[in-house]
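Hi X.,

You mentioned you wanted examples for the new student's onboarding notes, showing what a folding record looks like when two proteins sit in one file. Here is a clean example. The first protein comes first, with its sequence line followed by its structure tokens.
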Amino acid sequence: MRENLRSQIVTQGVQRSPNRAMLRAVGFGDSDFTKPIVGIANGYSTITPCNVGLNILAQRAEVGAKTAGAMPQMFGTITISDGISMGTEGMKYSLVSREVIADSIETVCNGQSMDGVLAIGGCDKNMPGAMIAIARMNIPAIFVYGGTIKPGHYAGRDLTVVSSFEAVGQYSAGKLSQDELLNVERHACPGPGSCGGMYTANTMSSAFEAMGMSLMYSSTMAAEDEEKSDSAEKSAFVLMDAIRKQILPQQILTRKAFENAISVIMAVGGSTNAVLHLLAISRAIGVDLTLDDFEAIRGRVPVICDLKPSGRYVATDLHKAGGIPQVMKMLLSHGLLHGDALTITGQTVAEVLAEVPTEPRPDQDVIRPWSNPMYPQGHLAILRGNLATEGAVAKITGVKNPQITGPARVFESEEDCLQAILAGQIKAGDVLVIRYEGPKGGPGMREMLAPTSAIIGAGLGDSVGLITDGRFSGGTYGMVVGHVAPEAAVGGTIALVQEGDMITIDAPARLLQLNVPDEELTRRRAAWQPPQPRYTRGVLAKYAKLVSSSSVGAVTDLNL
């Protein structure tokens, strides 16, 4: 155990009495000064349904930590609701919040010399933010997911927040009445919990379970169910045991753990954002992970879960069908998971999966049998070409023809593109280009759920392509390519595209190409001027100055 506040107080005695006096004021008694101090990083807020239930979990974790023999110290950290800020200027703060969360947890835990940390988060950036901090500090840690929302219901179908975005496109295309649009909105989000499909929050919770940093089955539990609170309390006991045994993140977050996470993400059809976040976490812990690793694993792992956004089911359905452990056991039995990777429990992955069957139950169809996958290969393809020399990420599930060559329709912002879609100005065969939305150019690399959902709602999902140096929501699907790097703001080729240029998106060939002669691109590049920064002060200005390329995770401490 590192020389922490507890040991300093004990060994230095009277010299540290001011510290003891301060701690007595928050509940310490004489016997508590010899107990491990455990931080509970609580992402509770009423800003978003993802986080509104977290305080209950934090309180249960606090009870568990005390019962296990620790002195828990609770502190808060922030969240931004991606769903609420989507399509607005506020969305620029979403990815920024990942760094703020990481910095805040690191600051408190190291500033107060804590022996371990239990982090509780719900919305998308809570999870990678917490894990980046955990990786930096390397003290015993566990992540507790706030849980998924239960599906809404209207007109005989399950709804998620994405249903509301797609309904806007359907309404604009004349396929939905105003009354139906309002009813979808009213029923899409029935209570607390993170967005219900295999969107970013559920993707990252699944990844952390696969990596061994969260308890088995915890990543797909509903936020409202008692088992989620029970799991939070149990997590505190497991963390206390890890503190005694000094099981550290560097022992768990190995290359094998990252490969396990990528395999699970491919198998469940997870969010493109997982690529960005796993790259960032790997950099924080010192594991050499690149975009090429995602492509290599994609080639050998099938998609075996029928989950939204491109499938039929939500995370609570996956939980009932066996959850992430069932998916992991299938991967393990086919040699696609590292069974010897360590988990926070002190057991290996193979040991915690020992009682899980190798094939899914026949009375469900959320998890497909290995012999009948949704797709024979993973869904997150890494594309390269003169439009993305550093790489780009395409999500190709649910696409009838993952190839398109068409004329560029160029937009300098998400808002301009959305307006064109809703006005009926986009036609089949077009390739939309949304640029200057990257990590530096946005700044903040906004998600493009509004335009992509509008495309789906207008019935153009299989006939229109979209590329951007921004990101996509986990709820996005269709012929869309994001994370284009280098981004427009630093002079990437995407900045040189002109209206009407022919662009090729070819997922099977992993190609993203601007079909313009090299000499013409050289001429355009010589004439290009970098834009003036959109922000000159405050957090967005600082972020734009520090942030790295999306191809290495859009981290802010790369070149310090």
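Then the second protein repeats the pattern, sequence line and then tokens:
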Amino acid sequence: MNDVSKTSDSIDFYFANVENPKIVPKEKDVILLKAEAVLKNQPNTLQNRSSLYKLAEKSYELGKSDIAFSVSQTLLNRATEKKDTINIANSSYLLGNYYLDIYKNDSSFYYFVKAEKLYKKIKSLEKIDEIYLNKAFIYIYESDYANCESSASKVLLSINPNDAGSQRMKYDSYNLIAVSSNELKNYTRAIEYHQKALLVAQNFLANNKSNLVANSQNNIGVVYQNINNHTKAIQYFKSALSQKDLSQSPSLFAMLVDNLAYSQFKIGDNKDLPELFYTSLKIREENNLSSGVIANKIHLSEYYSENNDTINSKKFAFEALNLAKSTKISGDILVSLNQLSIVDKAKSSTYSKEYIRINDSLQVEERNSKDKFARIQFETDEIIQEKDVLENRNRTLLYVFVVTFILVALLFVVRAQRARTRELLFKQTQQKANEEIFNLMMSQQSIIDESRNKEKKRLAQDLHDGILGRMFGLRLNLDSLNSSTDSDAVQKRHELLNELKTIEQDIREISHDLNREKMVLINNFVSIVHNLLEEQKTSHEANVVYHIDTKIDWDKIGNAIKINLYRILQEGLQNINKYANAKNIKVDISGNVENVYLKIKDDGIGFDVNKKSKGIGMQNMISRTHDCQGIIDINSKKGQGTKIIITVPLETKQQIVENA
């Protein structure tokens, strides 16, 4: 084992060492236990469960039933956790075998039925045949011979009769049907199926062939014993005893010797008797074959009773009864009581009553046992059906969930598409409105340009007809005074100088008028804003105070910014009129070399700026600010009015078409 302990915990390595014929059984136990520990510490994966199944099978094969049981339980728990149907079936099948080996027939039957249902579900036919055969063994152990025949017959109907791998199952099925028929006193059928089993053993089963042939011949001999054809029975017993290597199966050899001796006794052939009985008894006692020992002693009791040796007859009958009671095997107790009631005449009535009591109890127990197996079958079917119903229900719920999810997703897509459509329509409307404003501004600009031209003409006329005429008259007067030197000329020059001063003042006033007109003409956007605010004053009760910075060079600011600022101001005033219930409104438009600022403040009712949803007007203001690459700051509290500050950079190159 040193090489095993030093090597990595590879499962394949452990399996290889278990197969090694040089490793003794005790060391194989250690290998199997270490492999089990390694697998239990691994994650519950499909590979892990497959290795557990392989380990459990190998443990059964090596006769390590306790290890196989522990590994099978682990496999069942892990397979159940992962809903691994194939390994739930495999582990249930292995546990059924374990309980069958220790004669816990009800537990064995439960696990076999569970495995059978699952194997049928996954269509594992070979395993189903093995389960039918094992169930047949359970039925015969419980004396349920009709169900034993039925279960074994299912195996014969299912397996391929020409498949070499199925011949042992075929042999066991024939044998079980024959034994059941014998117990049901259908002796012809029993001999027929024992003969079929014998042919399978002779022609197909090379491994342990002699023992199987001898076993079938012994079974045929027993049937002939039951129909009192002991001569025929002796032929089969002797033929069985002639098989090679029979000594390797002491229980079979002892059974044949005892049966041969009993048939010889029945036909009065006392040659080698009672020595044959004692030979068989010795082998059975040495191998602790309790039921065989009881059968031997019953036969010896009959033999001595027939030869009028009452003492030995009672002695062996008593010994058989005591041994039967210690093993608690009801059938052996009944046979012993029946023999005692025959050989012990004084207590015959007592033994007969005990026989009847135990026989009745045994019949009740057999009925309960049959009912128990039927109940296990029914309850297992019911559990499987409940599981199927639950799976169907879960599947239905899954379908409902998927359909609901798809419908919700479709509804979301439709609503999103509608929202996008509304947004597109809104932008189209906004673009149209912007175009109208632009056209309005252009129209306003045309009016201003026309007014400017008219004013230019008026000024030209004033200069030409007024100032120029007066200056021409002054020039003529001054020329005439150049040749005059009298005192009147000095006075006249003084008057003419005063006239020049008057003309100078008139020219200055015209210049001032021209400058003011230029500012008005340049600031046509300001005029539009001014008109909007004046209209607000006249149309609504709230007092409006506004200031527009005159230092802003509006010619350097794009039309897109002007339009958006105008619409933001317009939307802000509309919101105040609709919702604020304000008494005072203050508007301030200012700027510097980098930004233009629009501030709108009111003393109205205010609102909660943290609300997730805002009105369409406020959303428009935010959207227009973003279009100008600007920043909007909204400060408001309920009962404390609202203050909105818009900051727009002058470097914005936004085009009016981008508002669409």
